[in-house]
Amino acid sequence: MIDDPFDDHSKDSRPLLEVDDLHVSFAAHGGEVQAVRGVSFTLREGETLAVVGESGCGKSVTARSLMRLLPGRTACIKRGSIRYRGRELTALPEAEMRRLRGPELAMVFQDAMTALHPTLTIGEQLMEGLLLHERLTRGEARRRALEVLEEVGIGQGPARLGQYPHEFSGGMRQRIMIAMALSCRPSVLLADEPTTALDVTIQAQILDLLRGVQRERGVSVLLITHDLGVVAEAADRVAVMYAGRIVESGTAGEIFRSPRHPYTQGLLASMPRLDTPKGRPLLSIPGTPPDLYAPPPGCAFAPRCPRAMDVCGRYAPPAAVITPTHAASCWLLDPRAPQAGPEPQAVRSPGPALTLRSQTSHSTKERIS
């Protein structure tokens, strides 16, 4: 693996999951949409890495690539490496990949209602992976299903096993999805927007559940989300994606206290704050993300960036190492680039992340202080 400026060099342990220069494209209209363009990161044992960004930036495509769950007719991994415990996954035969899904790598999908099979009981869906991967008897699989339901906070297990997905609330369905992912005791859990469409109270419960499972089992979590409040609650490290690339990466504290890329600054500045004076309009990032059918030659964020320079539209910026754990790809951080003007008010740092959500727990402040 190349020396990645977006990797966290502060830890000596070998990464559990290594992604290096990943490129993923979708066939479209005689050409291709370059959904993921050179993504690299690592995930170590017991940590949570959050991948954040706007819709369409490539977060979910990256997660599905790790699981090899891309639609085969339209999507393909063009190049790059995905290694789990040193084993290359991109060239692994599908039969061997199926043996890894569940016992080693598991995924919690964004919409539990569509991910769960509507005509199968919860018990049947929980037991399916156990019967396939662990070769348990039906009685043993049923007992394990009851245990994992209790672990995720769903009581009355025997009765629940006979119910169907539509008989549960949104929060309960999400807990069932987590139970299914955890049933075979995976080492890596990929959580794709696990709190989307849930109210803040249920969001907090799901985050507490994921943290509790991580503490007890030591599972590593790759958290895909656009909600910075969720990131402040749950993440150890953060990777910010824009237009298929990671533009900034660091610890949660570094990203929230000292964002260096204008896109990261804009994301944070656009979040509502508790101390915003009444009547002041919310800030936003002007413009829209670029068309990845024909990506721009330079920095993809340049057309929306209030501090863009001529070089930004011509050449892709290099990754600048800010600290051993913090890096960002921006010409503003390169001494060879022309000097930029003062940072505009619209992309100011939003201050302590505790203000990003009004109904998160006090652990947010503890995580980034």
TrEMBL record:
Domain of life per record: Bacteria
UniProt region (Disordered), positions on chain: 334-369
Keyword Aminoacyl-tRNA synthetase: no
Alphabetized UniProt keyword annotations: ATP-binding, Cell membrane, Membrane, Nucleotide-binding, Transport
A Gene Ontology biological process term: peptide transport
PANTHER family named among the record's database cross-references: DIPEPTIDE TRANSPORT ATP-BINDING PROTEIN DPPD, OLIGOPEPTIDE TRANSPORT ATP-BINDING PROTEIN APPD
Protein name, UniProt field: DppD
Biological source species: Paenibacillus mucilaginosus 3016
Upper taxonomic lineage: Bacteria, Bacillati, Bacillota, Bacilli, Bacillales
